[in-house]
Amino acid sequence: MGFLDKVLGNASEVNVEDIQTEFAPILANGETVVMAYKVIRDMFVFTNKRLVLVDKQGLTGKKVDYHSLPYKSITHFAVETSGHFDMDAELKLWISSLREPIVKELKKGTDVVGIQKILAEYVLK
């Protein structure tokens, strides 16, 4: 992840094995990390059971908010690919209890097809 991506808040893919180890204390029995993305200090982690939005707060980032979204609460989703003038891809998630979607920017080159496939696999069960 380059400095410009960090400043712009673009997400980049994170090593799944590293996240599996880091998240081991909060994962349910049989829960595994499938894909993870990082935006500066924050992350969104796709597991086989839920989507975890991680918000590191404060100057040191020691205070962390873990927001778990079971896939069954995602009513629909959209993934917009990057273009010639708009260099970023975008992920939108509509949650049954929220009126507005959760929107995440993804840097150019992010596996948007893979994200759609994971969401389709778990949301459309």
Q: Using the coordinates above, name the CATH class.
A: Mainly Beta
Oligomer: single chain
The largest beta-sheet arranges its strands as 1-2-3-4-5
Q: Rough shape? A: globular
Enumerate the spans where pLDDT stays under 50 for 5 or more consecutive residues: 1-9
Largest sheet: 5 strands, antiparallel
Distance between termini?
33 Å
What value does the Rg take, in angstroms? 14 Å
Report helical residue fraction: 10-25%
For the secondary structure, the number of strands is 8
Order of helices and strands: HEHEEEEEEEH
Mean pLDDT: 82
Description:
The chain is of the alpha+beta class. The protein has a single domain (3-123), classed as PH-domain like (Roll), CATH 2.30.29. Helices cover 21% and strands 40% of the residues. It contains three helices and eight strands, in the order H-E-H-E-E-E-E-E-E-E-H. It has a five-stranded antiparallel β-sheet with strand order 1-2-3-4-5, sandwiched between helices. The longest helix is centred in the last third of the chain and has 12 residues, at 112-123. Residues 1-9 have low confidence and may be disordered.
Task: Based on the model shown, name its key terms.
125 residues, alpha+beta, PH-domain like, 8 strands, globular
In short:
The chain is of the alpha+beta class. Helix content is 21%, strand content 40%. The strands form 2 sheets. It has a 5-stranded antiparallel β-sheet with strand order 1-2-3-4-5, sandwiched between helices.
